[in-house]
Write a structure and sequence with these properties.
Belongs to the 3-oxoacid CoA-transferase subunit A family. It comes from Pengzhenrongella frigida. By secondary structure, the protein is α/β, with parallel strands linked by helices. It is built from seven helices and eleven strands. Strand 1 (15-18), helix 2 (28-37) and strand 2 (42-45) form a beta-alpha-beta unit. It has a domain at 3-95 and 144-155 and 164-188 and 199-229: 3-Layer(aba) Sandwich (Glutaconate Coenzyme A-transferase). The protein has helices spanning 3-6, 28-37, 59-63, 79-86, 97-109, 172-177, 216-229; strands at residues 15-18, 42-45, 67-72, 91-94, 114-116, 130-133, 136-141, 146-157, 162-163, 179-190, 209-212.
Amino acid sequence: MDLDAAMEKIHDGATIMLGGFLGVGSPLRAIDKLAERGVKDLTIISIVNAHPAGNFDMEILYRHKQVKKLITSHSGTCQIALDQWAAGETEIEYFPMGTMVEKMRAAGSGLGGVLTATGLGTLVEEGKRKLTIEGKEYLLELPLKAEFAFIKGYRGDRFGNIQYRGVSANSNPVMATAADYTVAEVNEIVEVGVITPECVGTPGIFVQAVVQGNTFEEHQRAYTDQWVRAKLLK
């Protein structure tokens, strides 16, 4: 599917999951298209905020002041996001990283929630139910879902089966299951059968659209440029 067509349902106030971790395994073209469309008041669900070097990944959405709320585990990597939060322009809701992933997994699996001891005795437990199981206390964490998810894969076929490469299999697979409408941006679109069953990281039943992203070579170049700009590579 064309990326513009895949974006047609996106609206102001939408709740959107963005796969990736500090830009690694992130749907870069989809994020750029969100910025281009100018949709605003977005609730973004992302494991971590953008890479600290800036001008990359979801930082562009903050630059265009499109984010109303961020649900995350760590936002300190994006200065513009912190500045907008400090100015009262945006909200941030935090969850421990493992808890956040399990909340999304619960949404994708049709579960009513998950029990975890992580966060007991801290600010994390405020407003949450506690249950005691076999003498041990747990917090009840409710499922975390979204209207849309934009994930990044290595290859995808027309049935929506997605193959990941390396650490791009971070938050992408779980997010694909936890949204009403999942768009997979891939480096290469292949014929059905090219991705062998054991290499399918996300089955097509969870994916509503497969779109062409950067080629693998373009993706490598984008990451290399970013890491050089951040002075992490020479």
